[in-house]
Write a structure and sequence with these properties.
Length: about 110
């Protein structure tokens, strides 16, 4: 898959979270027109398969399913690691071992 832009990365991480925490069900309230177009493209290429949940199984606003390919899982993991590093770099806390001068958390 080509490099993802910021919006595509956010959509991928949203899909990844929903796969892990909600069995692959997406909340349509969090999917805009642009996201739907990206999902259609990804579905055609097999990067992230997606579609409508059958009406009799729709619960509330969870009406779209998705399934990540191996490449999408790999990219989602890479993006999570990058985010974790950014968040740690910008942390506003220190560990007790740092305060006591015993070690640096890295």
């Amino acid at each position: 898959m080509a490099d993802l832009d910021v919006k595509q990365t956010r959509l991928l991480l949203y899909c990844e979270t929903r796969c892990v925490d909600y069995g692959g069900l997406l909340d349509h309230r969090h999917i805009n027109t642009e996201d739907r177009a990206v999902l259609k493209t990804w579905d055609r290429t097999g990067y992230v398969k997606s579609g409508r949940v059958a009406l009799e199984f729709v619960g509330g606003s969870q009406s779209i399913w998705c399934r990540l390919s191996e490449d999408a899982w790999t990219e989602a993991h890479r993006q999570r690691r990058l985010r974790a590093e950014r968040m740690f770099k910008d942390r506003r806390w220190r560990g007790t071992i740092e305060i006591r001068g015993e070690a640096t958390i890295s």
